[in-house]
Amino acid sequence: MNTCFVMMPFGGYFDGYYKNVIQQAIINTGLSSSRADEIYSTGSIIDDVHKAILASTLCIADVTGRNPNVSYELGMAHAYHKPVLIITQKISDVPFDYRHLRMIKYDPMKSGWENDLQSVMENTIEEVIKNPVEHEALKPVQQDHDKMKKHLVDIFIDQAYDLDRTNKIFCDNSGNTVIKTTWKVVAKSPVFHLCHNLVSHKYGSIEVRRVYDAINARELDYVTISKSINHLSYLFFFKQFKESGQHFEAETEVYVEGYFDLEKLIATREIMMSTQAVSHGIQYSSRADWVYFPKTTQFAGVYAEYLNHPQSNLNGEKIISEETEEHYLIKMIYGSDAPYQQETAAIIKLPT
Description:
alpha+beta
């Protein structure tokens, strides 16, 4: 049976309005309706929403109140070239980029508004079913998957937050690493996802092993944005938008083959380690890279020197490794800055 996926806030007034007006209008046109909170499966909610939108004949979005989850789902529907009927109580709640699309305005304070809205919706749904292409917001110029990824990057890309980020980089005797990152974040605007970029010095596999919500104790979903034989960029998603002032924490674990060029380190006694931090409204309260080398003779005496640092007086400062039971540990602390968009780098050295 053809379906209509409905994007709208949940709870209270909206639940009754959905069942008594929107759902009834959809059923009367011969479609079945679904909403994110009606999807029951053992998979991730984001995957389920993706599948529901992809399988739908058309979508309906109530953008009243500018609910962030509705905006996110609306972006996905447009990425999949789905016909979308926008409804709203106030035109000012419709994002400017969508105001050229077909929309229905309703006033819940007006007598008989439910019947009026249901009638207009039924007529409009029938028009969309007859000619769905005319109601697409985006005409297909790329593969759906590519367009989907672009929209995921674009949605709320200007999110702002303060970030305390620490990488714990565990290296083996071949230069392969497991990178365990902690993300402590304070939102300064609606935040739904964070981006993580990994680059290896040598060609090899890069594998995301774990993304975890440290406060709510649950796994997080992620999607790969770009990937090559020595690079990976991915977004990981929280279950709901984080509003301004909210604190949240995440943990990620990624395996990178060939992260360090150990052949060069052994031959030349030094390699450079760099981090590019291009921000979109991001202010770093702290950034640190802790590098763990195996406690073997080839790494004995390993140390580092800052090459580029937000505090220029620290450039060239020597960082002596600490000995643990199993590792030589180098702690590179780049400190805070507001905001920081240049490269930070250090040279890792072995005694000559």
